[in-house]
C-alpha cells in the first residue's frame, strides 16, 4: 500500500501535524461512543443498536458489495449542468485526502466551464475578518483549501466549517472571499 511508508513515520495521515495515537483512525472517539450509547440519547435518536466509530464488518460488507472506493467525480459535470452547485473542500494538513491533489483533480474535471474554473483566482476566504482559507469558484463549482485543518475540517476549524456550509447553502460563498490585489 502506498500509505505504509507514511504510517511508519507515526504521524497521523488525517492530520500531519500530530502523531497517530489511537489505532487505524488515529483519534480517540470513546467520548462520542459513550454519549451516543446512552439510553436517553438512543431513545431521542430512535435507535437501539450500539454505536461504534468504525465498524469494520460493515466496511467489509460494503467492499464485498462493490460499493467501496468508487470514483464519483464523473457525476459532478451532470450535477453542474443541472444547476446544482458543488463545493469540494480539503484541509491543508490532511495527508490522505490532501488539498493539492483535490485541487488538481477539480482543475482536470471535464466539464464545459473547465477553462474558466482553472483561470479563476484562489481568493482569500475570510471568517470574522481573518483569512482562513483559499477559495476558487466559477460557474457553480467551488474548491476550498482550509488552513490549519486536517481531514476533519469541522473538528479542526469549526467556525470556518460552519461559515463555509452556511455560505454554500445560501449561495454566498463569494461574499467571504476577497479578490487578491493585482500587481500591475
UniProtKB/TrEMBL annotation:
Keywords: Carboxypeptidase, Glycoprotein, Hydrolase, Protease. The keyword Glycoprotein applies. Gene3D superfamilies: alpha/beta hydrolase. Coiled coil: none annotated. InterPro entries: AB_hydrolase_fold (IPR029058), Peptidase_S10 (IPR001563). Belongs to the peptidase S10 family. This is Carboxypeptidase.
Amino acid at each position: 500500500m502506498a500509505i505504509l511508508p507514511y504510517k511508519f513515520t507515526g504521524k497521523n495521515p488525517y492530520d500531519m501535524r500530530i502523531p497517530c495515537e489511537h489505532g487505524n483512525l488515529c483519534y480517540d472517539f470513546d467520548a462520542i461512543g459513550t454519549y451516543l450509547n446512552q439510553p436517553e440519547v438512543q431513545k431521542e435518536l430512535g435507535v437501539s443498536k450500539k454505536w461504534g466509530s468504525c465498524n469494520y464488518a460493515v466496511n467489509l460488507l460494503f467492499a464485498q458489495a462493490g460499493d467501496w472506493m468508487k470514483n464519483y467525480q464523473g457525476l459532478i459535470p451532470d450535477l453542474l449542468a443541472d444547476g446544482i452547485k458543488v463545493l469540494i473542500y480539503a484541509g491543508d494538513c490532511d495527508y490522505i485526502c490532501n488539498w493539492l491533489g483535490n485541487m488538481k483533480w477539480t482543475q482536470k474535471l471535464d466539464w464545459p466551464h473547465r477553462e474558466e474554473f482553472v483561470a479563476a483566482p484562489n481568493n482569500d476566504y475570510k471568517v470574522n475578518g481573518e483569512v482562513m482559507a483559499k477559495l476558487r469558484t466559477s460557474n457553480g463549482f467551488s474548491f476550498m483549501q482550509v488552513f490549519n485543518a486536517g481531514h476533519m475540517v469541522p473538528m479542526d476549524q469549526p467556525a470556518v466549517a460552519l461559515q463555509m456550509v452556511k455560505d454554500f447553502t445560501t449561495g454566498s460563498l463569494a461574499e467571504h472571499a476577497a479578490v487578491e490585489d493585482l500587481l500591475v
